[in-house]
Amino acid sequence: MAILITGGAGYIGTHAMVEFLEAGREVICVDNYSNSKPCALERVKKITGKNFKSYEVDLLDYDALEQVFKENKIDSCIHFAGLKAVGESCQKPLLYYHNNLTGTFNLCSLLSKYGAKKIVFSSSATVYGKPASVPITEDFPLSTTNPYGETKLMIERILKDIYASDSEWSVSILRYFNPIGAHKSGLIGEDPKGIPNNLLPYIAQVATGKRECLSIFGSDYNTHDGTGVRDYIHVVDLAKAHLKAIERAEKVTGVEYFNIGTGVGYSVLDIVKAYESATGAKVNYKIVDRRPGDIDECYANPEKAYNVLGWKAEYGIEDMCRDSYRWQTNNPDGYGEG
Ligand code: NAD
Ligand code: UFG
Fold first, then answer.
1. Collapsed DSSP state (helix, strand, coil) of residue 190
2. What residue spans define the domains of the chain?
3. Which ligand is nearest to the CA of 271?
4. Do 291 and 125 contact (CB within 8 A), yes or no?
5. What are 186-245's pLDDT values in tens digits?
């Protein structure tokens, strides 16, 4: 029985594919390559020495997606596919609602129709909005500040309603904190289009000389050094959480929510220093105005994931910085023409 991996060619998807294949699981990838390249899957094959099926399919195309279910025995799904850029979601809300929600409707209808009622969904710490305190536990109030976050929260609620209507479902909602780093092989990693929106890809490009200077968005936050604090988690640790989540979904039904973070908060300046010390490279920076919508601090209490899934993060910030740097150095243009 195969696990369907939607968005498997993306940043987190490729790392999860590696962990699943190395654990001996059968996986099938569907991706429309709107934010990824097919060659990323070739790299997954190279790392693992294993083969798997992949389909260029858009989740919005119900008939094409159904064909994948007809041709394979699918038992469960890890649902990564979605658009994820916060800023773009404010410019193009309809694109985000349509892609993320309609894609999920089609997927869930087919998972139900073909009796594969187990799903692990990629949610985000963004569903906690501006948390009243840190660390954040799963029972904190939920709210969002942009259309991207809204799609995550809506999908969480849709999945909850699906289970309420049909108790055969197993739904595991993983709320990721800030995934960074790359596989130690240096073959797969994050490949942002154009100017990176997120901190680590930007730092990696400054450290390797592709960009001149990091702009640090604000130094007057209510944090230990005034710069924003986040819970950075190694993407390989994050990938492993999916394996634990699917193993549990194979045993129990219900809807469960898990914070997937390390429980440790680092400021932007902490990360700059850690990057320099882990890699020996220089990260030039300047302080600029705050980025609208950013919050002071966001880090997880990840105890539930440990207690229920038996998962906890193993890698530290040095590993994350070193692995990010190796990926960027070996692949200055990401996957290139792919
Ligand atoms: P990514 O963009 O690298 O991967 C997403 C993949 O989904 C891409 O390969 C893209 O081509 C594919 N995709 C998008 N829409 C599709 C569609 N309609 N049909 C088929 N494929 C489609 O992003 P990522 O960083 O790997 O994130 C994976 C998931 O985790 C996303 O749902 C994202 O919202 C969520 N998430 C990411 C972060 C983060 O910081 N990276 C944080 C929290 C949550
Ligand atoms: N930052 C800078 N300069 C940059 C980029 C970021 O100073 O060039 C700062 C931000 O102000 C913030 C921190 O670095 O304090 C982290 O910013 P990121 O953009 O890397 O990450 P965010 O915490 O803003 O958001 C990310 C994803 C969201 C997701 C959220 C929680 O982009 O989609 O993590 O998972 F919802």
1. coil
2. 2-183+232-263+300-314
3. 2
4. no
5. 999 999 999 999 999 999 999 999 999 999 999 999 999 999 999 999 999 999 999 999
Q: Which atom of ligand 2 is nearest to the CA of 149?
A: 36
For ligand 2, pick from 12, 121, 195, 199 the residue to mutate: most ligand atoms within 8 Å of CB.
Answer: 199
pLDDT per residue as tens digits for the range 274-308: 999 999 999 999 999 999 999 999 999 999 999 99
d(CA 8, CA 2): 14
Residues 8-67 pLDDT 10s = 999 999 999 999 999 999 999 999 999 999 999 999 999 999 999 999 999 999 999 999
Residue nearest to atom 6 of ligand 1 (CA): 7
Give distance in angstroms: CA of 222 to centre of ligand 1: 31
Whether 148 is catalytic is yes
Rounded alpha-carbon distances, angstroms, from residue 170 to 66, 85, 151, 225, 258: 21, 28, 20, 42, 14
CATH superfamily, with its number, for domain 2-183+232-263+300-314? NAD(P)-binding Rossmann-like Domain (3.40.50.720)
Residue 271, ligand 2, Cβ within 6 A = no
Tokens of 88: 């773009």
